[in-house]
Amino acid sequence: GSLVRTFTPFYFLVEPVDVLSARGASVVMNCSAYCETPPKIEWKKDGTFLNLVSDDRRQLLPDGSLLINSVVHSKHNKPDEGYYQCVATVDSLGTIVSRTAKLTVAGK
């Protein structure tokens, strides 16, 4: 009655890359993870999970990528610039975290 655990493949197909954006542009941070059980994808910005439920500018796309509509960037308000990570979780397996991608917003 020994339980044999088989290896379940769970990995990133696509990880985010550094992006240079203009203010007001739309940005997609790409992310896609593979597993037999579809993983739950979340995003972290500067180490903190983004709450995308009530966010009207940022949304999770079906493939797991993050869409940021009209990047906000002013002298005192830079909510979009920073370091992003894609976090994929499968309950029975665990969590994998992508590489860190930097979003830089270009000046005028």
From TrEMBL:
Keywords tagged on the record: Disulfide bond, Immunoglobulin domain, Repeat
Homology family: Belongs to the immunoglobulin superfamily. DCC family.
Biological processes, Gene Ontology terms: cell-cell adhesion
Pfam families, sorted: Ig_2
Domain Ig-like: 9-104
UniProt xrefs under InterPro entries: Ig-like_dom, Ig-like_dom_sf, Ig-like_fold, Ig_sub, Ig_sub2
Protein name stated in the entry: NEO1 protein
Keyword Repeat annotated: yes
Gene transcribed to yield this protein: Neo1
